[in-house]
């Protein structure tokens, strides 16, 4: 394939856009563009793959990146893929192998060696191996079977022969399941740190004592993932259990590795799924989410978030309030939020860093009417609100004055500033406004959102860098990990 320089640049930007999608394990949906960029610009693709492992939130993309690196014709890619695969949990390694087989149509010897190294490393540490099996037994079995890797004697007894040795967690889980005394069960759960999802399947009755033991063994992300189940089992009705949960979520207690893996927007999804939880716990979850967002970048220039509420823009309103909470959490300068159809609506939250407050602020807005992207810019000009960055959440379907380019020109002249424009496209979007802005040589970038809300933090690096070029240079400066000889 032969592309011009502009087409290659557009492909890189399209790739960044695609990172906002959520394939939901259907990796074929994103494989084509991944493969195209790997072919056209392999150097950039390798750095992007490495950068995304630390900065991205969508696991599907991480798996495709690793699978493509492992099957690449470039040795430095295969070496980086080898290293990155070692950092994945078993279920993701299993998906990477399946992706290589089904989509890439090959599993190179180096990839098989990488998985063998992965399994041998776990076999060498019985505690490490047992925990991997306890949480992800099916994935572990699949790795041995699909690549015909011979397990160690102990691994074979646990996974295939169904004769777990007495020192294994698999054997001890049987002991826990057979124990009839709830107190004794709780002691065993605490001693062996049995995961919540596993324990609820073997314990006859979840008493407060058992619940306390389970919560003690959970990570912050496990608590978030199981929030609804914990609530259903009365976790927040018992003060001691609630305090342990609160402590696990406390960002002031040296968060470190136990909280750094928490996915920022999943806290809000978990709260909504639980149907309302204890106020103290909700505050801890919001604080934890904010810490994760801050780790992705800070916005250090005044920003305007303009949300399209015209006809059929319900999705834009939903995304807008989540973006408002997210951006306000990481902004070090002014943030102005406006919704608009043919007229602007100033939106303010009493506690701007909390999604619940933004939900209240947006609650009176309903999608309907024609569209004027220039209306909120005109409102900011009249209000004297000076910004350096304007973020639209819209489908770009502008059909009413004041038009965006005209309002922008008046704003720039009066405020003596030329803000960068970012168009976050939603719904059945066009490129009408983008073309109008580019014709006037206004600096504009586009993002297309078609994922789940928890993929929204992927936008932060794109908003917090001074320009898209700065972001691309940062990606290129991310070194590929090198495989060490052993």
Key phrases:
single chain, alpha/beta, Rossmann fold
Task: Lay out the secondary structure.
Blueprint: H1 5-18, H2 28-40, H3 42-55, H4 59-70, H5 75-86, H6 90-104, H7 109-123, H8 126-146, H9 153-159, H10 169-178, H11 182-192, H12 196-199, H13 208-216, H14 220-225, H15 227-232, H16 239-248, H17 256-260, H18 266-274, H19 279-295, E1 303-308, H20 314-330, E2 335-340, E3 344-347, H21 355-362, H22 374-383, E4 389-394, H23 404-415, E5 420-425, H24 432-439, E6 444-448, H25 460-464, H26 468-476
Parallel strand pairs: 1-2, 1-4, 4-5, 5-6
Antiparallel strand pairs: 2-3
Helix pairs in contact: 1-2, 2-3, 2-4, 3-4, 4-5, 4-6, 5-7, 6-8, 7-8, 10-11, 11-13, 13-16, 18-19, 20-21, 22-23
Describe this structure in words.
- It contains 26 helices and six strands.
- With 486 residues, the chain is α/β, with parallel strands linked by helices.
- The protein has three domains: 155 residues; 116 residues, no CATH class; 153 residues, von Willebrand factor, type A domain (Rossmann fold).
- A six-stranded mixed beta sheet has the order 3-2-1-4-5-6, sandwiched between helices.
- It starts with a helix and ends in a 10-residue tail after the last helix.
In total, the number of domains comes to 3
Rg from Cα: 25 Å
Basic shape: globular
Percent of residues in beta strands: 5-15%
How would a crystallographer describe the biggest sheet? 6 strands, mixed
Strand order of the largest sheet: 3-2-1-4-5-6
Low-confidence segments, ≥5 residues, pLDDT <50?
1-9, 253-259
Number of strands: 6
Ends: how far apart? 38 Å
Number of helices: 26
Question: In terms of structural class, how would the helical and strand content be classed?
Answer: alpha/beta
Oligomer classification: single chain
What share of the residues lie within helices?
Answer: 55-70%
Instruction: Give the averaged pLDDT, no decimals.
Output: 86
